[in-house]
Amino acid sequence: PADSDGMSFDVIDIGPGVDGPPPTEVTPNVTTQQAPELWARGVDGAGVLVGSIDSGTWRTHPDLADHIWTNPGEVAGNGQDDDGNGYIDDTWGWDFENDDNQPQSTDPHGTQAAGLLLGDGTEGLATGMAPGASLVTCQVGTEAEYWLAQQYLLDVGVDVITSSYSYKWPDQPD
User: DSSP readout, 98-133?
Assistant: First the structure.
């Protein structure tokens, strides 16, 4: 539900650290890459499983919620590693930074990056290149966690791995 801010748009709560209204037109990056033309031909990423390594993803974000992967080998909330991969209740990814099954944080970067991948426009217009794809999320904080996340995603069987997480300062990698 949106609350009016008395201005020309509504204030919409779309996630921790993410402010403002949804876009009013397809974003330039999507248009430049000719995504609307691909969507018109039925190419929208359907059937593609994307692995994201970043700060985590707000899994209930309206533009992403319908595209979050569900691990078919896990029973949610039973406290067991049903699929035998070493991660308990990893129903939609893994938080390697905190070693738990909730790969989401208050840092909006991972959610924003996921929106560029597969935001479907539920809260406005489509912002993602492949709004029909599904997302497996990994949250990391160190280089070692980054490589664990890579292996996890390969084991899950993703079709592509994306990461905005990088090491570009002298004190990294750790």
Answer: TTBS----S-THHHHHHHHHH---TTSS--SS-TT-
CB 52 within 8 A of CB 162: yes
51/150 Cα distance (integer angstroms)? 9
Q: Are 51 and 57 in contact (CB under 8 A)?
A: no
What are the φ/ψ torsions at residue 78 (nearest 5 degrees)? -90, 0
CA distance 18 to 104: 13
End-to-end CA distance of the chain: 43
Which residues, other chains included, contact 151 with Cβ-Cβ below 8 Å and sequence gap of 6+? none
- Global model pTM greater than 0.90: no
- The per-type count for the chain, helices as H runs and strands as E runs, is 4, 6
| Predicted confidence (pLDDT) per residue in 57-100, tens digit | 999 999 999 999 999 999 999 999 999 999 999 999 999 999 99
- Give the other-Cβ count within 10 Å of 12's Cβ: 18
Query: How far apart (Å, rounded) are the C-alpha atoms in residues 45 and 49?
Result: 9
DSSP annotation of 21: P
CA–CA separation, 99 and 139 (whole Å): 9
The three-class DSSP label of residue 39 is: helix
